[in-house]
Amino acid sequence: MRSVFFTGLALLLLAIQLLAAVNARTVIFALPYDNRDVMQDYHVQLLQKALSYSTTPYILQPAKETMAQSRVLREISQHTGIVDVFWSMTSVDREKMLKPVRVPLSRGLLGWRLLLVNENAPFLSTPRTKQNTLFVQGHDWPDSQILKANGYKIHTANDYHSMFTMVEKGRVNALPRSVIEIADEHKNIAAKLFIAPDLMLYYPTAEYFFVSNSDTNLAAAIEYGLIEMYKDGSFNALFEQRYGTILTQLAQQKRKVLKLQNPLLPTATPLDKPEYWQPLPGHFEQINW
After folding, report:
1. How confident is the model over 45-57, as pLDDT tens digits?
2. What does the domain layout of the chain look like in residue ranges?
3. Using alpha carbons only, what angle is made at residue 61 by residues 57 and 62, rounded to the nearest 5 degrees?
4. What is the mean pLDDT of the segment spanning 258-276?
5. How would you classify the pairing of strands 285-287 and 256-259?
6. What is 109-205+254-287's CATH topology?
7. Distance between alpha carbon 285 and the CA centroid of its chain, in Å?
8. Are 202 and 259 in contact (CB under 8 A)?
9. Which residues fall within 8 angstroms of residue 161, CB to CB, at 6 or more apart?
10. Which CATH architecture has domain 25-107+207-244?
11. Are the beta carbons of 172 and 136 closer than 8 angstroms?
């Protein structure tokens, strides 16, 4: 009799699982530029965990190809079905085009910028000013506009990998990359380059998940899950697992910080919630060019 009961229970659970799978929504996320295991990406793990709090089952699936940020924005806004969600630095224009989930994903670290440089170029050994410095950035990155607004000369590129080549060949002085990107890029893409040891650019910014303006259910599910993750500690645990070593190493360095304005930062950015932001190391010295 007990075996019949447990067999029936197992069949019932299997039926529930199959029903959930049938009713699950597939959510397609934009691919990162590099070829890492995307399902192990911090943002994908964050998204997967956040959606696990929803009563609606979701299945994550990577897009079939990498795309420039401008195309990703367009595909989501036009409901083409190629991409449903992506993570990116916010801006006023992006928040008009798409719906942001206003829980910062990287605690502001996208605005902490170190410089990839050519170790043999004079940039490291000569006095640096806005007039003699040429940065390279992606043509559709908000960073390009932020740096220009602060008086820096910017060369923009359409191809991600070409920016590293430009630095290597001396066509530009430096490629600013965030503290959460630069180590992996230096190791896997730009081993011939050098991370400038003395300087960091800083501007306030937030990285969010973005969805279509009409995809309110997905936005609500992601927001609810991220807030629950903050409450139960799983957000900070995942953040520490991914970026804890980077922040510890950075805190042991002596860096001078150029604090910049961010005219693209929307007024709705939750700067009044300190739990969402990583504080700068107190011993970093603020300077001006």
Report:
1. 999 999 999 999 9
2. 25-107+207-244, 109-205+254-287
3. 155
4. 97
5. parallel
6. D-Maltodextrin-Binding Protein; domain 2 (3.40.190)
7. 26
8. yes
9. 189
10. 3-Layer(aba) Sandwich (3.40)
11. yes
